[in-house]
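Narrative of accomplishments. A recurring question from our advisory board has been how the design workflow behaves on a single, concrete structure rather than in aggregate. To address it, we present the structure tokens for one chain from the evaluation set, followed by the sequence designed for it. No filtering or post-editing was applied between the two.
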């Protein structure tokens, strides 16, 4: 798993490289100190995951993330920051970042990277507790039928929004995991969304 690290604090950057390099499954392919570095280094190294801070001089991690995701839609970006600002969290979610973690939870960094590499989205406990309130602010209810979402699909959307895995949803609905994966793929297509996190955001925005 190739990781690109971008953080404007040299000590943090060095510490992250030491922590990550201790895992035999992880290779740190490069490091930078601002958003502009992130963009150029991403093009050079094409990492599996970009581990990036948010507040940085010259260009923020959020601005860099938007540019990278527009050019590389499948890019996996995990934000690692000290800031729990609502606006930052919302922007990271909407742009399609794969995770948002606080630096003090250093013991969760490697497990989070591995989860993102496997296709999951990861958020620290502090972020998860804020999500429902953040997402429902200033939103309006929509008619799911206008998206041709069936009752079964709506049930699955609800379970995804509540954080259930495919296996858990399958057990609740007495279906196979493969069937649930197919349903989720169809839901993503109908709602023009990218991943499970965006399904949850869509649900809470329109609840």
């Amino acid at each position: 798993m190739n990781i690109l690290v971008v953080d404007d604090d040299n000590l943090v950057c060095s510490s992250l490289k030491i922590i990550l390099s201790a895992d035999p499954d992880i290779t740190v392919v490069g490091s930078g100190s601002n958003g502009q570095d992130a963009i150029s280094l991403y093009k050079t190294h094409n990492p599996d995951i970009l581990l990036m801070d948010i507040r940085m001089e010259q260009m923020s991690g959020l601005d860099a993330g938007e540019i990278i995701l527009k050019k590389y839609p499948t890019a996996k970006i995990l934000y690692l920051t000290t800031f729990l600002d609502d606006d930052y969290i919302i922007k990271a979610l909407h742009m399609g970042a794969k995770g948002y973690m606080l630096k003090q939870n250093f013991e969760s960094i490697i497990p989070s990277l591995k989860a993102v590499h496997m296709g999951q989205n990861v958020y620290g406990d502090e972020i998860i507790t804020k999500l429902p309130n953040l997402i429902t602010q200033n939103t309006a209810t929509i008619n799911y039928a206008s998206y041709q979402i069936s009752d079964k699909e709506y049930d699955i959307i609800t379970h995804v929004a509540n954080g259930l895995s495919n296996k858990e949803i399958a057990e609740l609905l007495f279906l196979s995991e493969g069937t649930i994966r197919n349903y989720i793929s169809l839901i993503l297509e109908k709602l023009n969304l990218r991943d499970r996190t965006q399904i949850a955001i869509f649900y809470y925005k329109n609840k």
